[in-house]
Design brief:
The protein is mainly alpha-helical. The protein is built from 3 helices and no strands. The radius of gyration is 15 Å and the shape is globular.
């Protein structure tokens, strides 16, 4: 159920050529990293607005996860 929800809500791809054992190892690690990045970004922002990266080919109304990753990477 958790893996199905991550595909639907987070857009995580299914690893088609991987073994079942590899999928059972990597998916929880990816979810853990997602959680860590989100929690670290929450602490870094502490009520501030997040700076969004802009692109020439589309406009964003709200920050995306890539903006969150960029924020955490800048702080490291």
């Amino acid at each position: 159920m958790t893996f199905e929800e991550t595909r639907v809500h987070l857009g995580m791809e299914t690893q088609r050529q991987w073994s079942a054992q590899a999928i059972s190892r990597t998916t929880p690690a990816i979810l853990g990293l997602y959680s860590i990045v989100t929690l670290v970004a929450n602490e870094l922002l502490a009520g501030q607005a997040m700076m969004m990266r802009h692109s020439a080919w589309y406009a964003k109304d709200s920050p995306t996860f890539s903006d969150t990753v960029a924020l955490v990477r800048r702080s490291i």
